[in-house]
Each structure stands twice: as C-alpha cells, then as structure tokens.
Design goal:
Layout lengths: L2 H22 L7 H5 L5 E2 L7 E5 L1 E2 L4 E5 L5 E12 L5 E7 L8 E6 L13 E10 L2 E7 L33 E2 L2
Antiparallel strand pairs: 1-10, 2-9, 3-5, 4-5, 5-6, 7-8, 8-9
Length: about 180
C-alpha cells in the first residue's frame, strides 16, 4: 500500500467512525430498538479507484421533478452531467437546488446493479463538491462516500429517488452497503 492509499484509507475510516458515532446518538435516522443494537453501518472496503475528478457537461439549468419515497415531488435543477470511465462508460446527471447558479456541492442520486441485493434498493446518494478548473466547473465524485438515504433506515423520511437516467448497469461496490 502506498502512502497515498494509506492516507486515503485513514481519512475514510475516520469519516465513517464519525458518521457511526453520530448515528449512535439517536440524532440520525436510527431510533428505538434498532438503536439499541446499532454497532455501526456496513461499508464496502475503501477503493481509491472509485474516486473521480471530472469535468461537468452543462445541463439545461431548468427545474426538474424527482419522485420521492413518499410520493411527494422534489424540485431540483438540472445542473449538468459527468461521464464515468466505467466499462462501459456511464453518465450521471448532477442536481443543484433550484435557483443556485454557483453551488458548492451537487446532489447525485443513483442506483447501480447492486441496488436491492448489496445496497438499498431505491438507490444511494453522493454529494459532489464543485471546483473550477480551466475556467469550467468540475466535480469530485468519491463513491466511497456513497450513502443510503435516511428512508433506508425507517419510516418518516421523504427521500428523492434516482431518475432512470441515473440507473447504472454496473455495480458500484463502494460506500454504504446492506448489513
């Protein structure tokens, strides 16, 4: 393992430790008897190969409607898309809150070939920090930080569902997984 890989793994392990500690306080989505037996979330092993820095292809900028787990509608803005160097390559749509012209982070709901068997069936989320390179927006996508929406842990949450355009035909074995 290289020094960079060791630093990556240590940083990710600390992030996961803090998230598990937060959930254990009961301030997250886990409550009641489930909290009594909570000993931490399940994760895939760290994989530095699933961290990408990608240019954003501009989107329409128009508002779009995402379905949610409760049937409500969630308005988001089509900020753009990125193409992931998977085999075969896949494109993900990136969303901003309506009215945001220069967001610091974008919302990336997705499903993959492991959704339902290895990870939550409705999909997972990524938060993609935005940065500028060569005068245009880029994002950092770290699938090791992919997380289940709160509705995966119990009722009472409204979670946007990934649109069909963000359903990947390949498995993404990184981030949170089912126990």
């Amino acid at each position: 393992m290289t020094d960079a890989d060791a630093a990556f793994t240590a940083s990710l392990s600390e992030f996961r430790r803090r998230k598990d500690a937060f959930f254990a306080t009961g301030r997250g989505p886990i409550h009641g008897s489930a909290l009594d037996s909570f000993s931490g979330l399940s994760y895939y092993p760290p994989d530095p190969a699933l961290v990408f820095r990608l240019p954003v292809e501009p989107g329409t900028g128009e508002e779009t409607t995402l379905q949610t787990s409760t049937g409500e509608l969630r308005q988001m803005q089509d900020y753009g898309a990125v193409t992931l160097p998977f085999s075969p390559p896949v494109t993900l749509t990136l969303y901003a809150q309506p009215g945001q012209t220069s967001p610091a982070s974008l919302f990336v709901p997705f499903r993959d070939a492991g959704s339902g068997s290895e990870s939550y069936g409705a999909g997972r989320y990524l938060d993609a920090p935005v940065f500028t390179q060569d005068g245009r927006p880029w994002v950092s996508l770290d699938f090791n930080l992919a997380y289940h929406p709160y509705c995966a842990y119990g009722e009472g949450w409204t979670c946007p569902l990934p649109p069909a355009s963000n359903w990947l035909s390949v498995p993404v074995r990184a981030g949170e997984r089912l126990p």
